[in-house]
Design a protein that fits this description.
By secondary structure, this protein is of the alpha/beta class. The chain is built from 19 helices and 13 strands. Strand 9 and strand 10 form a beta hairpin.
């Protein structure tokens, strides 16, 4: 069983005094249903699961329900013997985006207080944007992602004690031993190949066979494509979602790493605004991660976004390396000089930062260059630039240096992530091993910072 950090969050909520309905959202195939099912069954005598996608494909018992009375009638006719009360019955509404009316019904289910509820949605970001009635005060939305690198370490036998010791090294500005560094880098490179999709990780743990891992990843990629096709059919429009999605790996090899509008349909004069819905789908569905351009890096970064300039990364680094290298593991494991892993390293860092609560931005200045990532440093009320280096020239970063030297931006410090073991500082730049990205959490408030 893969250990997921979000399990504690779910457990705390469904055993708390809060009667708000927790909605777990995220991309397909990241393990939402599995972790909700596991935690729910462990804490409730009666656990009832209703999968609306399966219902749509099968009996459609819950499809045309719009009132509590109708819902309870069908629920009792199917699960009557399993129903208790609010204290001992948890009802899991899975794939809630399939039947939009249930998003509105959540408010009334909460107010009725007959049973406890939890929900999940795979394409919920898109559904919520189009829903005209969202029960703001009745739900808590929580984003879930695939396994991050820390969870991958745990799955590979690196226990909590070891991870805590590594975190302590990070917090004290020190590197780990040479032996541990080599072990962590070996696992990190395997993470680049396997990624964090639970089915891919489980296959790797079971077989250590790249062919079988790639089969899992190919199936997920095809599923994402089918979802996009279905969305296009339902919207009645001929969109270019799959074309943009397929372009992401190749575009990341370009200097700017941005999708260029005129390349989507090979149409000169095409503009980014013409593909707003396609980009919105890829981002809201969780199948791609967006990184917005910032030319004026001031805290908070969201106030300076240039919405027509963004980079897209695949949501999982394993899906990326599957597309780039197929079944060949040597480009990643053997440090081949002819292979530039820059886009792969950037992808995994984007994935980690997003999973740790950061909104993603990058610095883009025509004269001064680009910096891979900018994140809000809430602890210091400043901006933190993050540069990612996959090769030996990790100390060469002219754009980062110019950014840090600009007194107008008042940036306290920057980070360079690389393959190097040691942690060191030079001026405002801190150099650290790339796997330390797993500790770059968004600022967590202490007890004395919560109350005011």
């Amino acid at each position: 069983m893969l250990k997921r950090k979000i399990a504690k969050y779910i457990e705390d909520h469904i055993t708390s005094d809060s009667d708000k309905i927790l909605v777990i959202e995220g991309a397909r195939q990241i393990g939402k249903s599995y972790i909700i099912r596991t935690v729910g069954k462990a804490h409730y005598k009666n656990f009832i699961e209703i999968n609306f996608v399966k219902d749509e494909e099968g009996p459609q018992l819950f499809k045309n329900i719009h009132t509590l009375e109708e819902f309870y009638f069908i629920l009792s006719s199917v699960h009557g013997k399993e129903l208790g009360d609010f204290s001992d019955t948890l009802i899991f509404l899975d794939e809630i985006q399939q039947y939009h009316q249930y998003l509105t019904l959540l408010k009334f289910l909460r107010e009725d207080h007959r049973f406890r509820y939890i929900a999940s949605g795979s394409l919920l970001g898109i559904t919520l944007r189009s829903s005209i009635s969202i029960p703001i005060g009745s739900i808590i939305r929580k984003e879930m992602y695939q396994l991050d690198f820390e969870e991958f370490l745990d799955a590979n036998g690196v226990g909590e004690t070891a991870i805590s010791a590594i975190r302590e090294k990070f917090e004290n500005g020190k590197g780990v031993s040479e032996e541990l560094h080599n072990h962590l880098m070996a696992l990190f490179k395997r993470y680049l190949l396997v990624g964090g999709m639970p089915d891919a990780v489980n296959e790797y743990l079971d077989s250590h066979n790249i062919l079988k891992v790639r089969e899992v990843q190919d199936a997920i990629r095809l599923l994402y494509g089918d979802d996009a096709s279905k969305y296009e059919a339902d919207s009645g429009k001929s969109l270019a979602i799959r074309r943009i999605y397929d372009m992401i790996p190749s575009q990341m090899e370009n200097k700017k790493k941005r999708i260029v509008a005129k390349d989507i349909r090979d149409k000169k004069g095409d503009r980014f605004d013409n593909y707003h819905e396609e980009f919105e789908y890829l981002i809201s569905s969780g199948t791609a991660l967006s990184v917005n351009a910032i030319t004026n890096p001031r805290y908070p970064l969201v106030e300076s976004v240039r919405k027509n300039l963004l980079k897209l990364y695949l949501n999982d680094v394993g899906l990326l390396t599957a597309r780039l290298y197929g079944n060949n593991i040597k480009p990643v494991l053997d440090d081949q000089r002819s292979i530039n892993l820059g886009s792969v390293y950037e992808s995994v860092v984007a994935q980690e930062l997003k999973a740790h609560g950061h909104r993603l931005f990058y610095y883009d200045n025509r004269q001064k260059g680009e910096v891979d990532f900018l994140i809000d440093n809430n602890a210091q009320i400043s901006v933190m630039p993050v540069e990612v280096k996959s090769g030996k020239d990790y100390s060469v970063h002219s754009a980062l240096s110019k950014l840090l030297d600009n007194p107008e931006y008042n940036i306290c410090s920057g980070v360079v992530l690389s393959n190097e073991r040691e942690v060191s500082s030079k001026g405002k730049v801190t150099y650290m091993p790339v796997y330390y990205v797993m500790f770059l959490d968004n600022h967590k408030l202490s007890e004395d910072e919560i109350y005011f």
